[in-house]
């Protein structure tokens, strides 16, 4: 059976890391007998340039019809003042496909300990995931207004929206270390009080899972001082965005962290958590590992091609262990060197 993959390369380093990921996929697929075809669609700033829209209808239709979606990164200074920004396309595709659960892993392999800015004895063994709510909260609440003398954003959550991300997070914990941390600001925000009360109710359905509750501000410290205390963090859209970049940093580079965005039905979307890195675009030094590990996540979760997924993951870790790294991880290799080295190890 042929697996149909929609490819959205996007902007700045997007096409560079997507080319790496597709080269790795092509090699791994031949080795593991994985039958697939890809279709590329315009998205983000590239789509604004081509047709005035960050998320053209043909891209939504193609994404919906695919079995999985690979996305690199969008946005950048070229469109920061444009009437429609690339970021609006990203939010729109997440909403159009109702991809409410964004899973962002933070794992520090032994090979990566030296790249971490945190002391080895603190960071060793770090292995947690952030389950970030992705289609509601401050990103989507109405009213939203930007006037000359004031501005409004609304942080809204319905019961169903909170329950479904809680269920995702608790189910994930059941397959892992059976520990959940609910991260909120329930000492201040109504949505966070609601979030915490919902968590307490859902937790009763998962008696094997231990739960702790932390405030977002204190959690940003704990990620630095005691990262091994976490297994699954369940948090709201905005908090999860911020926390996942911080968590990425303790692994040494945001350039290694993939993600999966899933809904109740339809294709999942896989993308690095980082952006389009305009500061390094065109130099051939973007770390392709987050994008390549996104391919591994796709193989595992959308296609149950577990052997292929593990081979890709292991090759990425082996290349880091061998010191073949781009400058963000302290090395002097190019994107192409890293890609070739990964392919050679699959
Ligand atoms: P960024 O994640 O693009 O970059 C932050 C820093 O990390 C930069 O120094 C960059 O060089 C570095 N970095 C990121 N990815 C890297 C990689 N693969 N290899 C090596 N270094 C890497 O964040 P930003 O600079 O705040 O945003 C740039 C643009 O990307 C903005 O337009 C933003 O809105 C957009 N953005 C898009 C996504 C997405 O497409 N999902 C995510 C985040 C930001
Ligand atoms: C991410 C990005 C996006 C977000 C932006 C570009 C809209 O930062 O995927 O983490 O905030 O969700
Ligand atoms: Mn982000």
TrEMBL record:
InterPro entries according to UniProt: IsoPropMal-DH-like_dom, Isopropylmalate_DH
Gene Ontology molecular function: 3-isopropylmalate dehydrogenase activity
Gene of this entry: leuB
Isopropylmalate dehydrogenase-like domain residues: 4-342
Keywords: Amino-acid biosynthesis, Branched-chain amino acid biosynthesis, Leucine biosynthesis, Magnesium, Metal-binding, NAD, Oxidoreductase
Gene3D superfamilies: Isopropylmalate Dehydrogenase (3.40.718.10)
Organism: Lacticaseibacillus baoqingensis
Protein name: 3-isopropylmalate dehydrogenase
Enzyme Commission number(s) from the entry: 1.1.1.85
């Amino acid at each position: 059976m042929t697996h149909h993959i929609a490819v959205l390369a996007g902007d700045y380093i997007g096409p560079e890391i997507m080319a790496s990921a597709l080269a790795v996929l092509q090699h791994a697929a031949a080795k593991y007998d994985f039958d697939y075809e890809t279709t590329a669609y315009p998205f983000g700033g590239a789509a604004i340039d081509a047709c005035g829209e960050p998320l053209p209808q043909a891209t939504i239709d193609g994404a919906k019809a695919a079995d999985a979606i690979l996305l690199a990164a969008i946005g950048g200074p070229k469109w920061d003042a444009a009437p429609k920004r690339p970021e609006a396309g990203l939010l729109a595709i997440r909403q159009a496909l109702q991809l409410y659960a964004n899973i962002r892993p933070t794992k520090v392999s032994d090979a990566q300990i030296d790249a971490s800015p945190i002391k080895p004895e603190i960071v060793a063994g770090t292995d947690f995931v952030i389950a970030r709510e992705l289609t509601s909260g401050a990103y989507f609440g109405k009213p939203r207004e930007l006037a000359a003398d004031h501005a409004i954003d609304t942080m809204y959550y319905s019961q169903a929206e909170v329950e479904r991300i809680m269920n995702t997070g608790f189910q994930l914990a059941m397959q892992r270390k059976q520990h959940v941390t609910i991260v909120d600001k329930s000492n201040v925000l109504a949505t966070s009080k609601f979030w915490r009360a919902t968590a307490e109710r859902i937790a009763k359905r998962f008696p094997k899972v231990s739960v702790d509750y932390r405030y977002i501000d204190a959690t940003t410290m704990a990620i630095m001082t005691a990262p091994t205390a976490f297994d699954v963090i369940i948090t709201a859209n905005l908090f999860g965005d911020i926390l996942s970049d911080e968590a990425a940093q303790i692994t040494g580079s945001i350039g290694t962290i993939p993600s999966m965005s899933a809904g109740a039905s339809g294709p999942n979307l896989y993308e690095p958590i980082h952006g389009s890195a305009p500061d390094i675009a065109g130099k051939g030094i973007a770390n392709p590992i987050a994008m390549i590990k996104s391919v591994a996540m796709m193989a595992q979760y959308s296609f149950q091609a577990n052997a292929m997924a593990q081979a890709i993951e292991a090759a990425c870790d082996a290349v880091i262990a061998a010191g073949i790294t781009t400058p963000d991880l302290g090395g002097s290799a190019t994107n192409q060197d890293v890609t070739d080295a990964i392919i050679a190890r699959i």
